[in-house]
């Protein structure tokens, strides 16, 4: 195994927004060519929850000692640690100003109301100062995979037996998956079909340093976070590279344009059109006290601003087909007409939905008196989102309704780790995809995945635990098992012979390149060494007859401070980043 | 005198950014037809400096009792107090989200670092939820006056004797004006000429309810605040009116498009071009700990983003004239070329300028090693900006340099109240403006202005103090004298026979309409009654040969909670607003 090993914990690689709380990032003990001395990890505090009043007034740069062995990533375009500190100061200042003016913001954890009321207690999102080098070949590969994964999710979601069978053992040991499966069963029982199916997905990858392979960490089918903010980070980086072209010597065009917010909004709008009730709303299911609300607001704001154009565009297309006349310019010149058809978006917690929601006789889902066309989940992916039966009632009610669910219960279950592991088995993909090239492309990005009833895999993992990660089915973060703990846990499970082993899968441990980076958080910048993970956003929309959208929409690069795991799980911290193609 | 009387104190009508601290707003005792009961004034707290943790989680609406006599402004398009509370909630939520995403933000006074580091401790700017009705005739009048006032400032600034003579008595009693005059004298002494003259002005008006006349409060020639944020408020209001067209029944186009940020940035860019040194920077002179920094950042960000286009536009125009070929499209298609000429902007306090600045032998002003093309003052207008001799040294150094000053010391002095009062005397405008129509237009907007050596005026003011305001020359806010205090102060000054009277001017008290409004601050909305003041931004740029820019650039509507002045000076609170033309 090469260099430093790292694999993101659930809390990081999960679809949700656990970017802000310190999250876990793990390394095996560093091989000699990549010694991560503790001095590299002490600079980024695990918790910055102290009052900002005590922070230095100007952006202080926390300088790490240079370790030459670390400054040699595989794609060493530039090393941001070599930029002189005066230029770093200017870049940080400009980045913070740009973020503030352009809505690259989150709720400040130090301000209690910041998750409750928009516009108060805002702070810039934690960001990497400059983009992260990434090979163009693997970038293209990741983009190419997006529509294939979309198609796979849709096909798997239709195979109810496959989902129920695959998750049958998990059901016994994981209460959360069990509840989801109950809803799924109930839908089968009442013969509920989803004719209009909407998926807003994010497939997360790491680049394995030794093999240079792009390997999938997981495929998120519910509540994918950061489509709203990640595109802003790309724009910020392009702006900085453009303004500081001479001193940095980098080309802004090498940061791929990121259209995650506008594309997700567009497809939400298209789904709304498919529902075909102009007075119906798009409902965002939110967690109470959501500090990452601006990421979500960007989607709904874009939808509200943009959607009227889509509506007219469809009308025009029909006119064009029928009469071959170009009427588009005419409509564009009348802004009032355009403004009359804004999509209304509402935000509700699961508890509010339970209290205010009902299904009308025609299947319409009504919340607080408003018909709901599309339900977009930004909550409901983790057990803690269901503190009482009310939330489960809300989830069931939505699933039973005629509203378009993003995702449906089937899409949600298709994104579970157990299904991911099952799909990695030989000849399983072929059940769902006809195109052999597509199957080959997907398989190429699969890391090794095994269930714990695979005795050979378990034997190997006990023998060589540093090559594996044990992932619990349960979402929620921080529960992955690494290193010697893999061995110990496997031995314990073998001894006990319990069903508990069904709660885990084994995954090949991926070892991404550790690279030097400059991170900015709470107005303070840090020189650190980090690893990163690439998420590709994709959207899928179809009705009974045809596929309306199936496309790559943008990307999320998350960069996390690397930490040694002396003594077990160590804490890292993640920021939003973008790509610099090499 | 009709209805409620109100005149803004210095702290509000002054050019600076005293929007956030509670500021004074005064009324005479209300005549019977417009009784402002105390219940209207207790809802907007004078200070909200308590922790937001104690604030309600959702936008609470503070409802005032309806007083029918108040709901009859002269231009009663709609009364926002009659909007149902559910719709108000939606509007407030959307307004707060829009503000957060679009950079309509300020530093939160509760976060100490918010004035020191960008991107931390941000909160939405205090705003009126909906625009304020304003008659189109007076709006057009105010716009028409902008270039005439620009021309007047330029002409007055060239008459050194007029400035020195007019301010000679003020000099003896006002230390701040005295220091400014010393710098002015020094420039005369060394024969310093400003060939390139740049003014970014704001002329503030109120609409007198009784006469329906647009009357000038003052003309600001230094540090005019809110060109960056006011245009965002107009855009916010247009967006809300458009999205809620049906329930509100208002037309978004009736909110005039506000180009204050882009126009100010454009003229700053043009001035930079005139200076003709591509490596020179634009320097913003700032107060330390500026919480209104985003208002300033909007100008410099726009300048940086936009300026390359201006530069190329000039190049292209020359090519077009010479060869009659359309080359513009070609250049536009090469973004890299465009990106190489960004204007650099730096921010410095007066103390930093004193420490880092020097004048090179050719007159170039250099700060921290960088040549300065344009000095844009957003500090230096008030005595508190000069806590030591260092700041005065910095001011003198800048004035002596070849950099373009916005404003020069002459422009600054031209904006003083004493000069305003002198210009209002018969036959004075005619000394500076040839066009008689222009003179008539300016005179029409002048409120009554008198010096304290005008014995008739003083006599009248003692007899009828409620019709006058005493304004001290000194900037800084909260020093205006109203009501019985006018009488007492005038009698005291008469008795003492001191020079102190030269520190004041007498101004006709303006009585604007009190109207119902909804204000939003710190995420909380308030139904209040308020008065407002219209500021018209204008830019003027000329070189030795020709006037390059002389135009109206945008507007600032400030709306303040009206307060009775039982017991003297009462506190009001100001928010950013926009216009709805009637």
Automatic annotation (TrEMBL), chains A, B:
Which residues are involved in binding ATP? Answer: 218, 417, 471-480, 482, 507-510, 533, 560, 566
What is the species of this protein?
Answer: Tagetes erecta
Ranges of Low complexity composition bias in the record: 46-58
Q: Which domain of life is it from?
A: Eukaryota
Identify one Pfam family in the record.
Answer: GSH_synthase
Keywords assigned by UniProt, alphabetized: ATP-binding, Glutathione biosynthesis, Ligase, Magnesium, Metal-binding, Nucleotide-binding
> Disordered: where is this region?
46-75
Summarize where Mg(2+) binds, as residue positions.
Answer: 218, 220, 475
Protein name listed in UniProt: Glutathione synthetase
